[in-house]
Amino acid sequence: MIEARGLTKRYGKTLAVNDLSFTVQPGRVTGFLGPNGAGKSTTMRMMLGLDNPTSGEALIDGKHYRELRHPLRKIGALLDAKWVHPNRSAYAHLRWMAVSNKIPVSRVDEVLDLVGLTAVAKKRAGGFSLGMSQRLGIAGALLGDPEVLLFDEPVNGLDPEGILWIRKFMHRLADEGRTVLVSSHLLSEMSLTAQELVVIGRGRLIAQRSTEDFIHAATENTVKVRSPQASKLRDLLAGTDAALRDDADALIVSGLDAAQIGEMAAANQVVLHELSPQRGSLEEAFMQLTGDSVEYHTELTETVDQLVDVNR
Amino acid sequence: MTLLAVERIKLFSTRSPWWCMGLALTLMVGFAALVSGSADSAGDVSVPVTQFGYSFALAVILVLATLSVTTEYRFNTIRTTFQAVPSRTSALLAKTTVVALVSGVLGTIAAFGSLGVAMLLQPDASLALNSEADWRQVAGTGLVTFFAAVVAVAVGVLIRHTAGAVSVLLAYSLVAEGLVQLIPRVGDDIHQWLPFNVANRFLTGNPDVAVVFEGPGASTSTLSPWAALAYFAGFSIVMLLIALVTAKRRDA
Ligand SMILES: Nc1ncnc2c1ncn2[C@@H]1O[C@H](COP(=O)(O)OP(=O)(O)OP(=O)(O)O)[C@@H](O)[C@H]1O
Ligand SMILES: [Mg+2]
Description:
The complex is a heterodimer of chains A (312) and B (252).
Chain A: E1 2-11, E2 14-24, E3 29-33, H1 40-47, E4 55-60, H2 71-74, E5 75-78, H3 90-100, H4 106-114, H5 130-142, E6 148-152, H6 160-175, E7 179-184, H7 187-193, E8 196-201, E9 204-210, H8 211-218, E10 222-226, H9 230-238, E11 243-247, E12 250-254, H10 258-267, E13 274-278, H11 282-290, H12 297-311
Chain B: H1 2-12, H2 16-37, H3 47-50, H4 54-74, H5 77-84, H6 88-121, H7 132-159, H8 162-180, H9 187-191, H10 195-204, H11 225-249
Helix pairs in contact in B: 1-6, 2-4, 2-6, 4-6, 4-7, 4-8, 6-7, 6-11, 7-8, 7-10, 7-11, 10-11
Bound molecules: adenosine-5'-triphosphate (ATP) and magnesium ion.
């Protein structure tokens, strides 16, 4: 289990992480979701004892990272696939990591096999493609057969095949009972990978709940209604607990479904020109949630474009 | 012991340390061959003369030791290191030990190799190590390169960038200390206590024995040779402590 308690990190004037508290449970994949600059990587660095929190703490099964005796056997992490010396072989890279935590060196061959890098084990890591580097990073994370795993944007830049491979891998790790925390700025990706979501924006916690609930709540259905007797319709609806919103010449109703609205209109002899159920989309939901908390608006536009692309 | 093995694997699993070691040896032994081979008579070749290439080898060893740290920062493997070994002090002490030992052995081999090649090329020269001063000059090289490597690792940890750390170290040890002498009145007094100048005192001993342009330069320090080594070692340890405290405090 991972626990963040009031975790706060300030870099000069930037408050990167702001009083963040959440827990990550074993046995499922937890998505750590937030737009660019939300503080995901900073939070993960603090969990690994690399950055010192300005205040608050991160605990791994109740302990600070620095108190772990052989940390690689407890928690494996892939924060950045490029954190490898380019002239060192994949094998040598994993070997020194294994030796440092008294992990049998035979395990190096095992994890290389697991991620499918056996053939290039003795090649210099600098020549690896992004997908291969990512696999090497995962091999490093799995080296100590840890119960807890952290991955920072593991699918960034991968092709669809690579993404699928990683997604299946995460599920397998969680099914084995491990605690898996995966960050991403793509809700659409996380909706396929994670069973639980921790959503942050501008360093603050926005929501923590199951992906299903999150998407259900986020994509709440609405009904679009157009009527020449708009004011009469409005009065009728105001008598219910439905929420109303204007959209050009139409009304957007939430809290009632199309059948209920149609029957109410017929009973009161209101003419309807349009009665159409609207489905909210994931990307709208994500934007609504993190809307005020996005740091760079240009990057947000990119995020939305990517979301739309992935959904297609 | 485990951590020493880790640092040994890291150091020798990339190419640059091998290049640096080869270069340091080639420079020092090569200069010894050049100087003794081109001497007019065997009488011109003495023990200090065989150590002509010392400062070049020292410079390369400083680079080797600096790189062992700064490449870790450059490629962020320092983060993987601290992830694997959360006690930064232990991890950096292990690295310092391994790099200093390698540098010490390398300095020793280079110094004796230089003496050996001179003996081969000038069999008639009197190159036997007869005095304590002769021994210190040759066998002492390894001790100086050991502590010089400690200084270089510390500077690497503090500055973190290869270019910055290497230029500071080389400019300081090769140029800056000498320039201090140009400061009017106090220059010489300060220079006397600057660490690399003091380290030369250990190697060259009394100025009347030292040959100014050959090997480690004559030193203006007035310490006894062994006190000079202790001073240089103390300096390297203070630098290392500053580096360890700094590394522990800041974000990796
Ligand atoms: N070492 C640092 N020094 C100064 N500011 C930093 C540092 N690291 C991160 N920041 C700032 O902290 C904020 C959070 O950054 P962080 O990298 O944690 O976000 P992120 O959620 O991982 O974003 P992304 O999706 O882009 O990876 C940003 O404003 C960033 O500029
Ligand atoms: Mg990030």
